[in-house]
Structure of Malate dehydrogenase:
Amino acid sequence: SKKPVRVAVTGAAGQIGYALLFRIASGEMLGKDQPVILQLLEIPDEKAQKALKGVIMELEDCAFPLLAGVIPTGDPLVAFKDADYALLVGARPRGPGMERADLLAANAQIFTAQGKALDQVASRNVKVLVVGNPANTNAYIAMKSAPSLPRKNFTAMLRLDHNRAASQIAAKTGKAVGDIEKLTVWGNHSPTMYADYRFATIDGKSVKDMINDQVWNADTFLPTVGKRGAAIIEARGLSSAASAANAAIDHMRDWALGSNGKWVTMGIPSDGQYGIPKDVIFGFPVTTENGEYKLVEGLEIDEFSQERINKTLKELQDEQAGVAHLL
Ligand code: NAI
């Protein structure tokens, strides 16, 4: 049987953690033949560590055959030690009266420290997924704080936006969500993201032609996908944790095991393609194979798309400028 791999998860006692850990331990992320050791980081605070202990009791009680060990900790150097995968979920949420700049600064501190810890102790091939918001900028900070690790190892989660877009398109066309190909989401994980179905197909037929409604695209589809998180909070009284955890599983599974030629969306550091400046962590269409992602290049960007891409890029660059002095 395979040697266990080490999977670090931060914010492990949080909402997303609770929807995520059991699925990783059951083999849904890395395969039903891949044992895992979970290295779980929570803030050192007594209450958080106690909650983490409770989650671990439940993990034990699932008796997952693939769960080869669990290491709870309050120390990033322990959590990331030899980590093959790191899911950075824990982040500082916006508190009452907190300005955007305060939020960026609080998270910059967390992701600088975690980037440095990854740099020091993680596997040189560690695959990092940042889920905690602002996810793209947090991933950028972690990447910049880990100069000895390859830049390409740092990614941010746009997959929830991608999956939300797919579900809206399935509902609109009456087709199966699993049959949608070549969908992507450009930019920031925020309401400025640009979900783009111009290239998408279902059974080889153009989704754009099937829908043939630019007003629906601009006035219904994009706002619905962009504000979906807020709509779920409004309905449920809690944020979208299960679908976020599911998207994290999808992102990591496809990165590790391949997407079989299918386009998926990942927030990755730009190398300058599509006019996105180098290092900006941007949602792009990629395919994945042999543990590597590859950008889908050469797509035509029309005027409407360029405007949307410029807007989400501007937001990311403003966020980057807001943390520049902290790096
Ligand atoms: P939560 O508040 O339930 O859990 C977060 C956990 O992280 C808490 O237990 C907290 O103690 C822990 N934490 C905070 N700072 C930490 C640190 N420095 N090290 C380790 N642990 C730390 O929040 P939830 O619902 O689990 O969401 C987590 C994050 O994911 C939030 O930032 C949320 O905005 C983001 N999110 C991102 C999505 C995406 O698509 N990229 C989708 C949904 C949520």
